Amino acid sequence: MGSLRFASWAAIAVIFLLLFLPACGGHKPAGASPFPLSITLTPSPSISLQQGSVQAFTANAVNNGNSHISPTFTFSVTNSGAGGVTGGILDIAPGGAACAGTWNAPLYTICTPAGIGVVEVTASALGASSAPTTVFVHPPIASIQVSLVPPVNSPPPACPNQIALPESCQIKFASACSTNQTQTFSCSCLSTNQIETLQATALDANGNDITPSVGTFTWTASNPNVANITPVLNPSYNVATNQVTVAPGAPGQTQIIASASGIFSQPSDVLPRVSTFETCPVQCIDLELGTNGEFTGQTSFVAAKGTSETITATAVDVQGCIVPKPPLTWTSSQPAALGPGGTAGCTGSTCSISTAQPGAGVITASCSPPTCNVGFPLNLNPNLAAPFIPQPVYPITGISGLVTGPPSATSVIATSQDCYSNQICGVALYDIATSSDTAGGPTTIPDAPNSLMFDLAGDKAYMGSAFGAFAITPADIGGSTNPFTSLPAAGTPLGFVTGKLIAISRNGGQAIFSDTLLTPNKVYVVNTGNSSTTTAQLNINSAIAATFSPDGLKAFILGDGGTSLYAYSALQSLQLLANPLPSPATSVVFNSTGSFALLAGGAASPSTLAIYNNCDNSEVTLPLPVLTPPAPGLPAAPLLLKMVPPGNVALGPALLPVSLDPAGLDFFIGVDNTGVDIIATNTSLVPLPVPPGPLTLSTLCPRDIVNAQSVPPNPAFTFPPTHIDIGHGTFNPINFFVSPDATQIYIVTTDQGVLIYSFNTGATTAIPLSGNAAPLAADMTVDGTLIYVAGSDGLLHQLVTGTAGSNSEQVTPISFPALPNSANSFCYSSFSCALDIVTVKP
Prior knowledge:
842 residues, mainly beta, 63 strands, 39% strand, elongated
C-alpha cells in the first residue's frame, strides 16, 4: 500500500515539473527546414548525347540539418559559358527529361533531333541551385578508335630502382619491346614509373571526325587492377575529354575501351597495340629474411613458439624493374606451425610469419593468376603474335622455418572405412583430445566414409564416401550444430560429389575426390573457397593420387592406376601430360616453391624419378640423376614420397660430406619396402650455360633442374638420389613421417610396427604395438611429439617421440565404447568395422 502511494506522488511531481519547464529556459524543438542547403544533379559533371536521344536528369536536395527534402525542382538549360546558343540543342521537360533536340511540348513524348553543341543543365529550388552538368550534343557515332597520343616512338623512362636487384634476379633481362609492334609504340609493356596517353576518335558514318562535338568519353579497363586510368580534363569546361593517361597497376594485360553514347571502341587491325594495355609481367621473385632483406642469402631460420619472423619478397619484371607492390600469393607448407597460410599478415612484398606451435615448414610467394600476371595472352588481333605469354612465377628458393617450444594440445579423429560400400551402414566418429587421450561420445557420420583428412591449417576437414562427400567443421563435432556439409555436384547420379579424397590444397579451399565406382570413372575438384561451392568434373580413369601446387593454381593428378599424368587448372582446360608414363607412379609432390613436381616413379629407369615443370607442364629431360660411384642410386621408385623443408635437413657427414648449394635446393624423402630414399635437387633461374643474347620469358621457362651440388663457384660434388637400407629386411609401409628437425624418419608398417631411423646415428629402432597389434593407419602431430596409430586390436596407440632411443609407446592405448545395438565401436549394425582412419588436427 505504501509503495502505491509513493508511485502516485512521483507521477504528480513529474507532471508539475513538466508544466514549469518553459519558465526554466525550455523551448519547443524547431521543425525541419524546407529550404535546400545544397542540390545535387545527376548525371554529373558531364554527359555526351547523340542527336535525338533522351536523358533523364534527377535532383536531390538536403537542408541545413543534412536531411533529404523534396522541394519542387526547376530544370534549366543555358549556354556552356564558352560561347554559342542553346536553342535547338537541348530541350528539357519540367520533370527533368532532356531531349537532344526539341520536345513536342506540352506532351513531351517525341524528341526531334536538331542542332549540335555544348550546353549546361542546372536544377534549382527555393533559391538554391546545383552545379551545372555540361552536355555535349553530337551527330550519331559510327565507330570509335583508340590511339596513342604522339610521340609514339619515344623511349619510356628508365626504372628508378634497377641497381637494387637481388643477386638471384641479376640476369640479362628481355627487352620489353616487341619487334612486331614497333609500328605504333616502342615497348609492349610499362613498368612502375612509365605512363602513356591514349585518345579516342569518334567517326560518323562517312568517316568524318566528330570528336570535338562528342566531348566526354568514358574509359574502362576489362581488368581495372592492371591499368590505372586518369582522365585528361578540358580546361574550357573542366570536364573529362577524349584523352586519358594510363599508368601500370598489377602485372598483367587488359583491354582498354573508350565509349560514348552507347558506342564502344573495337580492336583495330591498323592500331593493334592500343587495344590492350600491359603492365610488365613479373619474371623473377627473390625471398629474403628480414623487413629489408637484411639477412641476405639466409634461407632458413629457427624461432621459438609465439615469436614472429618477417620475409621480404622482391619481384622483378621483364624490363628489370622492381615491382613496388606485387600482388603475390604467400603460402606455408605447414600453416598450423608457420602462418599465415593465406593473405593475413602478408601484403605485397612483405609477410609476417607467426609461429603458433612447434613444427617445420617452407614459406614461399608466387606471382600467380588470377591476381598476378593476369590476362595473358590478350591478343585481339589474330594476325599478330602475342608478345608475352607469362606463366606463374615462383621463387628459386623458399624460406625454411623450424619452430621450437613446448607441445601444443590438439585433437585426433578416429573412425572406420570398412563399410564404405554399404549405404545402410551407419558409422561413428570419435574426437579425442590429446590433452586427455580419452575418447568422447560417438558422432554419427551421414554416409560411411572411405577417406578423411584435415586441411593444413586444421580449421576444416574433408571426407570421401561412395554416397556423398562432405566438408567438416571440426569445431562443431560433438556440438549442437551439424559439422557435416555435403558437397554438391550437378549432373551426377546422386547430385553430390562421390569418391575417395586424394588431395587438399594448402589453403583448404579445394579438394580432389576420385570415384572409381562410377562408369566411366570421375575425378571431382571441389572449390569451397568461393561464396558458393563449385565442382569441376573430370573424365580421369582410376585416379590414385594428386597434389596441388602451393598457390592452388594447378593440380597434378595420377590416373589409370598411376600410369598417366594430368594437369588441372581452373584457368585452363584439362591437359593429359603423359599416357602412358614410362613406368607407374604411386604419388606426386611439389617442391618447396611450387616450380616443379616430382613423381614417385614415372620414369624409364627405377633409379630416375620423373619431374615436370609447373610453368609449362613440360617433363624435365635432363639426365637426372647422374649416378656417380659409390652412390648406388635407387633400387626402385619410392612407394611413399614427401617434400621436406630443405633448410632443416642435416644428413650428417657420412651421407653428405660437404655443404650443398642452398640456392634452389629441394629435399624429398621417400620410403620403399626396404628403407629410405633421399632425393636432392638444385633449381636455377636460367639454363646452364646461359644462352647468348637477351633472355625471354620462354627462356626462363622451363627451369633448369639438376641433382643437388656443392656450394659454388666450384661444385665438384653432386648428390644423386640415395637409398638407405635400414636393416630390417622387407616390410610393408602404410605411412611415414619426418621429425620437424629432419633428424628422424618414422615408418609405420603393417608387419613390423613403427620403424624409426636416425640420420644422426644411422641406427634403426623398431617399436611394436602393445599386444602385437598390427598398424592399420597412423598420423603425427605438427610438433612431431606424438604419433597416433590405429591398431588391429581396435585401440588407438600413442607413440611418444623423442631423440634417438627415447621413442616409446604410451602404456595404455585409447579404447572406444561399444555402440548401442552393435558388436563393435564404429558401426551401428552387424557389420564388423575396425578402427582404420586416423587423422590428427594440425
